[in-house]
Each structure stands twice: as C-alpha cells, then as structure tokens.
Amino acid sequence: RDGDLSSSESENSFQKGPRTSSRNDRGGGGDNRFRKNDAGGGGGYGGRQRDGGGFGNRHQTPSSVNEDSWNLSSVTAATDAAPPTATYKALQVVGTESNVAISWFHNPAHFYCQLIDCQAPFKKLMEDIQLFYKGRNSESSVVGAPVIGLFPEDNVLYRAQVLEVMGNQYKVFYVDFGNVSTVNKIWPIEKKFMELPAQAVVCSLHGLKPNGDSWLDPDTYSLYFDKDTYICRFVDKDESKTFVNLFYNNEDIAQKLVSDGLAVSTQAAVQDVELNMLLGQQFRGIVKSVNNLSDIIIALQCGLALSCSMHNLETAVETFEDVLKDLLEQTVIVYVDNIIDDRLEVTLYDNQGCKFVILNPDEGSYDTVDAICPLLVLRSTITGGVTHAEEGTVFIQPTEYADTVAMLLEQLFEHYENLAEENTIIPETDQVCAIHSEDGNWYRGKVLEFDDDKVIVQYIDYGNRETIGFGQLRELDPKFREICTLSLQVTCDADGTALIDKDVTASIFYGDNGWEGSVTLLEITPSTTTTSDTGFGTASSNKDNVEVPPATEVVPPQAEPKQTTGTEVFMSHVDSPNDFYLQLKESLGAIEELQSNLQEEVGSSVLK
C-alpha cells in the first residue's frame, strides 16, 4: 500500500482533484500532467463542479476561509483524535457497478475514481471538517498517520495520510482524490472524520497492458478519461488496485484503447478467427488506415484488424477516395460483399445505415442497411446461454457478450425510467423500439404485428415474444442502435425448449435458413469454465432484480443430482460469479414454513 501511495506523486499524471504547485512534487521539471477543468484558482472540495452537486465550486473557496483562519489562536486540541496507527476504511466495491468520476489519472493501469452515489455524505463531511478545525493550531505528525492537511492552492482542508516528513513540511496522500502534495500545515484527524471510507478507489482497467514497454505520457489518454462520469464495473482486486471495466456512452474504454492501438488486451487473444465466416455479415468497425481504395484497414472492437478493399472497385467509373479518407478514426457500418485472398471486399455505411458514395457505379450493393447490426460471428463454434427456443430454433447469447447484456439492461432502465413520459408512438412492422416489459424493465424489441391497441414484439436480444399495449412503446434512442443484437438465432434439430437457461456449444454455418447447425449442452469439467451465467438471464439495475422478458415457453431448469461430497445447497439468487446466495437444502422446509407464517402474519395485520 505504501508503495502505491508514494507512486501517486509521479509527474506523469493528470488530475481533476486538488492541484499541487510544489516543484518538489513534479520532480523539478515541467508539469506534464493533463488537467481537466483547470480554470485557474483552486477551490471547492475537490475540483469537480457539477450541476447542483459535486464537491464545491472550481472557481472559489469557502467565503469564510482565508490563509490565517487556521491559526487564529490556541484552540483546544482535538479531543478524540485517531492514533497515528489508524487507517482509513476502504470502499467495498468488487462485484458492483456504479457511476463514477475520475479524480486523478496516471495511466490506464493506475487511476483513481470516486463513486457518484457517495458525493452527498462526502460533501457534508468536508463542510464539517472546515468548521471543526477553524482557528486550531496545526500540529506535527509521523509517517503513516492519518491527518487533515491544508491544501496550499485552494486553502481547504482534506483528509490525508502522511507519506514523508521533510523538516517542517509533509508529503501527504489525499485519500479522497488520489493525488499527492507537499504541505506545511497538518492536524490530527478526529475519529468521527474517519468513519466515512476513503473516497478514492485506486483502479486499473481489467485485462490491459501497454502497447510497448511502458505507458505513454498521460496526455495521450486524455480524450478517453476526461469525461464527467462513467459507468464502472468493479471486477476484481489485488493488494494494490481494483480491476475495473469502464464504459462511456455504451463504449468500453479498454476496447477503445486496444482498437486505437494504445493498449494490448491480456485476455484471451482473438484467435482461430475464421475469416470466411464474415462473408455476408454486417458489423461496426473503425477505419484505421487508407492507403488507397484497395488497401484499407478496419479494426473491430476486439482489436482484430481486417484488410479490406472497396467492393465493385474494378467496375467503378468514378471514385471518391477523399470521402473514404475523411472517415479515418470514425466508426462505420461494414458489409462484407466478398472475400478474396484474406482480403474483405466491403461496402461502408454511416451510423444510420446510409451508404457512403465512394464508387460510381456501385451496382448490387444495398443503398441502406439496418442501423442495428446483427451479432457478429467470427468462428463456426460458439458457446453461450440459450435464452429462448421455438420448434427447430434456439436463441443463444454468446458468453463473451454477458457484460454487454448487463450494461445495456442497466442503461436502458436508467434512460427510460428517468425520462419524462413521451407521446405514445404509432408502431410500424419491423420497427425496433424501447419496450417497457411486464417485468418492469426496458428492452429492445421489434414490432412483428399490431392491431388497434395491442402490439406483438420480439425482444431482439433474447428471442422471445410478448403482447403489449401501445403505451409500453417508446422511440429507441439512437445510442441504443449502436449496439448489435445480442442473441443469435440458430436453426437446429435439437429440442430447444429443453436447453432454455442452459449453457450450450453450437457448431454453425450460414445456410438457406440463416445460421444453422447443431447445438449441444456444454459439459462443465474442471478444466472448462464459463461466465455466461453472469449475463444471459439477469442483470443488476436500479431494481432489485432484472429479468429476461417474460416468455411462456420458458421452463425452470431442473437440478441434476450429482454424486459428490459436500453439503447440498440451493442457489437462491445470483448477481455474478463473485456474488451469489445459497440456502442449505436441509433448511428448505423450514424456510418455506417461515415464509408461510410471514404471509399469514402480514395477511392478518392487513385485515385488522
């Protein structure tokens, strides 16, 4: 921990928290840090200004604070100070998902974030600290002690920990922001001010390493980490950092860094990709390089770089290469018309599905495509969970999309639950809308048919159908069209209903009926693991539980007896592989009896 704290003083960082002006904290050289909202003059409680909230105003300090207010007289020392060996509590975040703000940044493997939900109690704590220490003489301290430190640039008190004693000065780590500064005045901290956990969570993007020997200058990453808020999924932790998945506007920051060549994934590399499987598929990618119309590089989110050329180039009379070059570093929709010698012949479309005019004539290509791309298939064998089945057909959510499923459910719920009620839309056949399902959650659904007051929709990320009223339809926000469908319909000979809610392996090919193949149960062995349980059935949101849209065909999975040692249990609830609940099988009878008694008590109370 001490090593991590001391590394926070590195000059190679950018900040959104308290700033330091000491050259000792910058290694004596120029300031290479990237600063967001650095508008001159410190101020507030941490340097982040939000509409009606946050930690104070960037551009002013509390009106009652001035340089001398912390040493007016010999006020009685703190009466219940924490001992020098005391430590701050840490936020327990692993296995959760929160809106966060990045307070200090060094590189993608070392930055600090604050939970937005904790801002109100933290703001109250900061106000109490300012009032409590006003007029008190500063004191001395020792290395490792928790203290209150006066930040020199904004003249505001913050919680800190002493890293180094340098004569009459102290190098401290600000536990609520993640940065380091050299200060002249510190005070012992009252125990009551240590009750709120340290607000800065030290983070590292999960499954990422630099694309080279070391991370580049922090300014290189400023466009990726300078947004006001992110959605952060806390995946795991070690002794020094918490590993996270970070999302902004539906985009995975780690995948964005990989696709832009600024990082390398340490997850299982994209391997065994069967290029011929891409024929006839449509997907989003980023145009990374254009040498000419027959030499184009397009990158997928997973980091895979595809060599491409424009389809119909040989028969074109006019070409507009400048149009293509203007698309560099932009996301486009790619349709694969042909594959020759591992090079894709493609047609490109904008995010709304309208074709870019790059060739003329361009016969045989579609003028428009659906803005919501089908799920991309990179190999002939996929593994995932069956979310729905009909006669001769199963719908599979691939394992690698589990996090995306959960994220989409969360964002749909937050967007539409907080949105002012809109006018009911008039449905059209094949229109994709936001659907407020009977289970209380929001999903993407396609209109199959409708009459005067009822609509039959199919949930495109699951496959099942539901009949709903017009009032449950909303216009789908364009940002939710940028995510591909998250289930794959496979025609097979298996009894699909027996596979619902189970993990399967499918060997597929594209035939006359779309994706076809064989589907079998995935056999779990000690050397085989799957994470599909984290996403294809449920996802956390502002509700207690988020469920798959209702489907009358779904049957509850039956527990299969196993010959093994241990205690028999029943899995009652699952949030993630790191967070689930078990009940002892021998206690099920008592639990049911207790539940029955509770219902009777509640019922009798209501009657009274």
Automatic annotation (TrEMBL):
GO CC list: cytoplasm
Residue span, Tudor domain: 140-198, 426-483
SMART domains: TUDOR (SM00333)
Compositional bias (Gly residues): 39-56
Composition bias type Polar residues, residue spans: 1-21, 59-69
Pfam family, one: TUDOR
Bias (Basic and acidic residues): 22-38
UniProt signal peptide: none
Start and end residues of each stretch annotated as Disordered: 1-69, 530-561
Stored PANTHER family: FI02030P-RELATED (PTHR22948:SF29), TUDOR DOMAIN CONTAINING PROTEIN (PTHR22948)
Protein name: Tudor domain-containing protein
Top-level taxonomy: Eukaryota, Metazoa, Ecdysozoa, Arthropoda, Hexapoda
